[in-house]
Amino acid sequence: MLTVAEAQSRVHDLVAQAKRAGADAADSLYVCAESTAVSVRLGALEDVERSEGETIGLRLFVGRRSASVSSSDLSADALATLVDRAVAMAREAPEDHYAGLAPEDRLLTGAAPSVDGDDGVHVSPEALRARALAAEDASRAVAGVTNSEGASASAGRTIVGLATSHGFTGGYSTSGHGCSASVIAGEGGSMQRDYAHRSARYLADLEAAEAIGRRAGERAVARLDPAKLASGAMPILFDPRVGASLLGHFASAITGSAIARRTSFLLDALETQVFADGVSIVDDPLRLRGLGSKPFDGEGLPTARRELIADGVLTGWLLDSASARQLGLQPTGNAQRGVGGPPGVGITNFYMEAGPLSPAELMKDVKRGLYVVEMMGQGVNGVTGDYSRGASGFLIEDGEIGPAVAEITIAGNLKDMFRALVPASDLTFDRATNVPTIRIDGMTVAGA
């Protein structure tokens, strides 16, 4: 694994080599990731995985023609061959009037801001095993848990380097630590499973393994003996771990590529009311120790906090340089990429700001509703916004969470759902995409 400085030097040199070989412009991305993961089941070691790999990618332009290539062999001969192949490919490629490097005047200059993403901690396999065992022991200790699907603990580090031929060179490193447990409650045909998982950049910020395991066990036991639920329209509350998927659908709908292709249900929604008054949705790539934080995007542009929904109003799109050119706009610093192709668009630390009411207050007036903790299937139409997914969770009766329910379908349209959405006050930053508990009235529920 190279250091950050060595990674920057490597991509800078490869870009210079591409220019000497005849490219008019080029950029290069280096990524190296190492990780160790230990899995246990029923108190015994089940698996130890160790991986480390580095890859370098090159994208170059000959006029308006471009090509992208990558290699895991970083030797001088391999990189020379890589450059020659990329130049030859670009000369035969079709012209693309929207492709190209990011605007030079928008590149990050000066020192990159720190996102405090690497704790520098190296965790031994023995320590990972102890963490996994602690999580599983805690989950199996919950009354009603009858079996385990296992627990795991992981640790890793990633080094990133990026350089462009028009003046940008940068790099950064991130660490990652995780722990999870999955268990089964009940016997025979009435068994139920559930899980719990946490990730953090800093080991010191990772939730205790015992708490993670205990939560997995309690979730599984709570889902035993599901009741039948009659079909109808009713309020639905989404647990934060599933409510975050609604932000994923929103993000997909505001990407520049979807807008340029006219394949988004929010195509004509810019600067209009998309969510209810008071709702705010933010992308914050500079959040310290955030799971999605980074000081610059996949094209070398500076990243910055953006409020994409302000008081319910959509304020802008997520744009890389190519989609920005198609729309006649400027890129927004949201480019993401792998080593083997051109940039796309993505989010970083994406979240919905909390509302004023607690989850209990939010459901207090619900006579009959549904609290969803798991969703299945992919029944979402990004063009129309039609939404239909399998779900399971708990019945809400007279403002209180009641028995478990399963094998149901929830349906609506994302446009209507967004306008009816009300966030609770329980926002926490446990994932890259975070929401508080969410209430949406008027959705259709089809019972078993």
Automatic annotation (TrEMBL):
Metalloprotease TldD/E C-terminal domain: residues covered: 231-447
Domain Metalloprotease TldD/E central: 122-224
UniProt superkingdom: Bacteria
Cross-referenced Pfam families: PmbA_TldD_1st, PmbA_TldD_2nd, PmbA_TldD_3rd
Chain segments annotated as coiled-coil in the UniProt record: none
Domain (Metalloprotease TldD/E N-terminal): residue spans on this chain: 34-90
Family per record: Belongs to the peptidase U62 family.
The protein's name in its UniProt record: TldD/PmbA family protein
Source organism per UniProt: Sphingomonas abietis
